[in-house]
Amino acid sequence: MRNLTLLTDLYQLTMGQGYFNEGRHEQLAAFDVFFRPNKLITYSVAAGMEQVLDYLENLHFSEEDLAYLRSLGIFSEEFLAYLADLRFTGRVTAVREGEIVFPYEPILTVTAPMIQAQLVETAILTFVNHQTLIATKAAKIVDAAGGGVMEFGLRRAQGADAGIYGARAAMIGGCVGTSNVYAGKLFNVPVSGTMAHSWVMNFPTELEAFRAYARSFPDGCLLLVDTYDTLRSGVPHAIEVFKELRAAGHEPKGIRLDSGDLAYLSKEARKMLDAAGFPNAVICASGDLDEYSVASLKEQGAKIDSWGIGTKLITSADLPALGGVYKLAAVFENGKEIPKIKLSDTTEKITNPGMKEVYRLYDRATDKAIADYIVRADEVVDEGGPLEIFHPVDTWKRMTVTNFRARRLRSVIMENGKRTSDMVPLSEIAAYFREEKGRFWEEYTRRDLPHIYKVDLSPALHALKTEMVKKKGTL
Asked: Residue ranges of the domains in the chain?
């Protein structure tokens, strides 16, 4: 396992030395991870927590790390000696991977000595921001396709790690496979892929290329048919090879389209395959697709069974950054919580202070989600009676919820620097996401003009925030 302790911004370490010099480095502090609204963010799929746990459990400064820091000439020997023995000893509270999450709610909280909690900010945001972004993009593409999406983006990812962990996140979001062999081995997920245009071009004729591939893979033969002319040569040659395979006792898998008018070509190819006696041959499409182009193709009646999505998935092309932040929520003195708040002239950037928990309220009659409810950590949500919830800014927007159940979204996933449970297989995480998404009305998760899901504050948390704003951040 790589030691990523120096995967941090320099200011985390300069602040660390400052805390050390002031004797505040061991003060217990709590930081929240959350993201703010964006016109393209309607909901997000939480991911990356597994890598957070790996990183925190392995946190330590090697001799080489300390030598490098010493070479910068800005850290004292006393501070470097302290870092030599530093390990993460704190607590992490978080939603589970695959949980649907919304702006402003704390999806992960680190509670640890100040220097530890500050040091790990950058890496935690790297893991959670990236994988949550890609899992969410995958979920939207899968939703548009209705399933059958394969992640094909490694060659277009912003670096190897982005390709590897992007593939992991894509599986959480609902992809059924990846072209990334390393990710397949690392995460035990299905891998898929057949041939490139170079294979076809490397033979004297397209037909010879198809026959050669069929000889190597007679029981998994999926042919790329758009190298020269999709309908005049590609599909007819594929059909000819498919007939030869069937005569030899094998059944072909199908064809892939990678360019051109995919709606028209898929419909014509489907007619040709059906007429030739291959109604079960699948048609796979690829070629710079995303949820919008996939939805458009389906609206045009495209006969596409599976989708290979690369660039626009692995880079989340229309929203390349989630924008998650890591903000101080509280410090502790003599065991007493002291809430902290960040103020701003921009209302959206004022944080929710103190230790908090998040509950999801469900209507008992339909088992559909009604709202998320952020409360102070010591509050208990009473399911027995009516509950009035209100918009945290436009407080006149209120509703009374009755006959509901409340589910706490977060749990402790690390205590005293050690994870509290074993790693969850990606298949289980993806299944959990599908199950929980089914508890949301389509109006909240649809691609176009979605209804804004309610994320409200309890009266106690709202009162604390209002008081601290009036007093300019202090109590």
From this structure: 10-119+324-470, 138-314
31 strand-pairing partners: 110, 328
H-type helices in 422-458, by residue range?
426-437, 442-445
Domain with residues 138-314, CATH architecture = Alpha-Beta Barrel (3.20)
How far apart CA 331 and CA 343 sit, in angstroms, is 17
10-22 and 77-84 are packed helices; what angle lies between their axes, rounded to 10 degrees?
100
Tell me what pLDDT residue 38 has.
82
Compute the Cα dihedral for 367, 370, 372, 377 and give only its sign: negative
Q: Does the reported pTM lie above 0.85?
A: yes
Q: Where are the beta strands (DSSP E) in 119-181?
A: 149-151, 177-178
d(CA 326, CA 127): 12
CA 372 – CA 357 distance, rounded (Å): 10
Q: What share of the chain is helix, strand, coil (3-state, %, to 5)?
A: 40, 20, 40
Residues of the chain short of pLDDT 50, as ranges, are none
Question: Which pLDDT tens digit goes with each residue over 304-326?
Answer: 999 999 999 999 999 999 999 99
Alpha helix (H) residue ranges in 300-424:
311-314
> How many Å apart are CA 41 and CA 369, to the nearest integer?
18
What ranges make up the beta strands (E) of 364-473?
369-376, 387-390, 398-401, 404-408, 410-415, 418-419, 454-457
DSSP letter for each residue of 323-343? --EEEEEEEEETTEEEE----
Closest by CA to 430, choosing from 182, 204, 99, 131, is: 99
The single-letter DSSP state of residue 188 is T
Q: What is the pLDDT of residue 444?
A: 93
Task: For residue 284, give both structure tokens.
Answer: 């796979």
Helix (H) or strand (E) holding 128: helix 121-145
Question: In angstroms, rounded to a whole number, what is the distance separating the alpha carbons of residues 472 and 466?
Answer: 10
How many Cβ atoms are within 10 Å of 317's Cβ, its own excluded? 13
Q: How many CA atoms lie within 13 A of 363 on its CB side?
A: 10
Please give the CATH number for the structural domain made up of 10-119+324-470: 3.20.140.10
The residue among 313, 318, 291 whose CA lies nearest residue 38 is 318
